[in-house]
Amino acid sequence: MQRFLKALDEKVGWLLNAVAFVTSLLVVGLMLFLILARYVFGWSLVGTLELVMLAGMWLYMTGALIASRRREHLVVDFLELQLRDARVKALHKTLVAVIVAIISACFVYWALRMLAWGVQRPQHTPELSIPLWVSQAAIMFASVGCFCYALRDVRQGIAELRGARSGYALAGEES
Known about the structure:
The chain is 82% helix and 0% strand. Helix 1 (2-40) runs antiparallel to helix 2 (48-69), helix 2 (48-69) runs parallel beside helix 5 (133-174) and helix 4 packs antiparallel against helix 5 (133-174). The protein has one domain (2-174). The two termini are 36 Å apart. It has helices spanning 2-40, 48-69, 78-82, 86-120, 133-174. By secondary structure, it is mainly alpha-helical.
C-alpha cells in the first residue's frame, strides 16, 4: 500500500507541476501578447484578459496544492522548534494536521456549494462567455487536494506518534 501511495504521489506531483508550467506559460504569454497588441500594434483585443485571469486562477490554486503537497504552505513553527521530546513533537504534528484537515474540509464544503451555485445559476464572462464555474472548479480542485494532503499528514502524524510512544516505552523498559 505504501508503494502504491508513493507512486500515486509522484504521478500527481508530476501532473501538478505540468499544470503549473502550462498555466504559467499561458499567463505570461497572453499578458505579453496583450501588451504588444495594445501598445505596439494599437489593437484592442477583447477577452484576452479573461483568459489571463482564468489561467491565473488555475495557476494560483495549483500552486497552493503544490505547496500543500510539499508541506511548504504557511506555517508558524515557533512552538515546533522549541519542542525537544519526540513524543510531544509527534503529538503537536498530529494536532496541527487534524486542525488543517478540519479547516480543509470546511473549504471543500464551501467550494462545493459555490461550484453547485455556479452550475445552477450559470454566469459567464462578459466578452468570451466563459462559464464562471470553470474558474470555480480550480478552487474545488485545490480544496479537495489540500484536504487529501491534510489527511495524509494526519496519518503520518499518527504513525509518528505511535512510533514515538513505542520508542518511549522501549526506552522506559530498558531503565
